[in-house]
């Protein structure tokens, strides 16, 4: 029995050991990955030898990028194995001349040399595959750019020219016959399907489509709102979730309705084979039209302003309400018209005329929207908008002016016959608008959800605080940071999708961003108008991002940290200057100026900076010391020389101090570092008042001391701890000198408290008949004769 059990365990152990024995080495895995990448790259290269459309070209580009990534990853893995082999070779050391090594050592040297040569060749092979993949990607990008340029540059007959209309009228008979033939095929298919029996599938599909479009869509929208009102945590989350729900329902219901309607026709054999592209286009059109209409409705919320996430007026939302529906209808018509023309095979003249009508309709829609916005701005200006609304209106005015210029250019291009250019421009305007609205709504929703769910008083926040022991400030900071990271990701994705109408998808954008992140050019710098414009654009974008980052840091993140105002100011200033420095370096990198050239430039200017800007440099360094060590903070009461006041602002060059007369004293930071400064509120210590006076030597000193202590005790501003003190400082010229101390809560309260104590003390001393004063001074005039007698004696 024991022998049988032992045999079973041996079999089990062997079975478990087989996978471990058969597991390939890292070198074999990387080599196989290189082979797959090389084969994929060869397939992409072969596919590019034939004519491919834009969609297929984008897929080939993604495949080439994937092969490039696999080749780089495999090369990195092999490079690591090569480093291990080099370490083993270094461990053996070089052969010693005249010394015969052992056979096993010589064999190991040969094996390591062969392994190193093999790994080195595979690493170089991976690098070569990556370079070839990059060349294929560049070739695809050039082809896309050339195709876009060709489409834009082609000039067709102008709609205002007789040639345009003559070609259109000449093609009408043939197009009419093609359309009639196309419609006849569907008619024959419907007749054939009806002869086979009642079209239950088509009727059911139509009924389901109608139910999804109207009653079910309205029911789901109402159920979602009722659920959010009852169970959602907070108004902001309810509002944002309702926006997402409306967009989801508004997109999913038309899509499902179109799909069920098409499937119903197919189930009842009522759809001809030639009409399949038109049926597929119906589903696509339903997706885009439903998304456009639901997005616009969720953005405006004209009928439910309390659920609106965008700060726009009710009048503006009502006036702009027809715009999303008009754009959705136009989008649906454009997609269906294009599919119909392609399936029916109409003439190029008819296609051109259709494109002209589509562009003209888009221009009319955009122009009408701009007119409505302009009328709303005029009405708001007449009603007297505040400064914030005026600033927002100025920004809207700049955007509308830009769009007016773009649309006018598209109209001129259309009339001149450049229909492809006009289509591209109009598509970009609409796509940018749709993408901008989507991005804005998604960013608002992300901020509402992240900052509402992750706050100290929320359910999740309390769970994190009690379960993980996190502080309330840490939970708030996590919500703000999570919101910032997610919104930044949304912006990056939106920027990538912005290039889609120009033939470059999100992969192209990510590829370019990755290329920029790899480093700056180290070689010569090529200065041209293009590089200068790029430098200006990058610098403007960098400064805009710096402003947004510092605004977010100052208004959102730092208030959630619980730090005091001085620490916030220090962090804000240091972060601002670091961000500005990074923006400048980024803009210089766009010119091709590397860090080596920047270092050489700074070293060349160091002598001039040392002599000419010595004071500024000293103040700058002193400001950094003040911000780091914080011997002086915002709100401190300090005395510089004979001036005393509150610190209002600390920058890297100077410090602003508000004096008692509300004037501002600007002190260079070097003065605060190299000279003596009295900080009365450093460490939050209480203020101290001091009173000196004298009484005649005949006075009762104990009684005077008791009066002083009673006066201190009767003043509310004087603290009990530390206790007031009244001491005899000395006796001079027949008078007793008293020095008295009392403490108040803040150094700023010493003046008022000292005045109140003196008023009370003078009144009490007068009532008690005690003479207050200082040591009397007596001036005697000595006659000259007496002076001489005294000197002679």
Automatic annotation (TrEMBL):
Cellular compartments annotated? Cell membrane
Signal peptide location: 1-22
Which UniProt keyword terms apply here?
Cell membrane, Membrane, Signal, Transmembrane, Transmembrane helix
Cite the DUF3772 domain residue spans from the record.
124-183
Indicate the segments forming the Mechanosensitive ion channel MscS domain, all copies: 616-679
Naming one, the record's GO cellular component terms include:
plasma membrane
What's one GO MF term for it?
mechanosensitive monoatomic ion channel activity
Q: Which residues cross the membrane?
A: 198-216, 244-262, 282-302, 323-344, 350-373, 394-419, 425-446, 478-502, 522-546, 573-593, 599-627
For this protein, the record's InterPro entries field holds: DUF3772, LSM_dom_sf, MscS-like_channel, MscS_beta-dom_sf, MscS_channel_2nd, MscS_channel_C_sf, MscS_channel_TM-2
* Lineage: superkingdom: Bacteria
Topology relative to the membrane, per the entry? Multi-pass membrane protein
What family is it from?
Belongs to the MscS (TC 1.A.23) family.
Task: Please identify the protein, giving its name as recorded.
Answer: DUF3772 domain-containing protein
Organism, as annotated: Sphingomonas liriopis
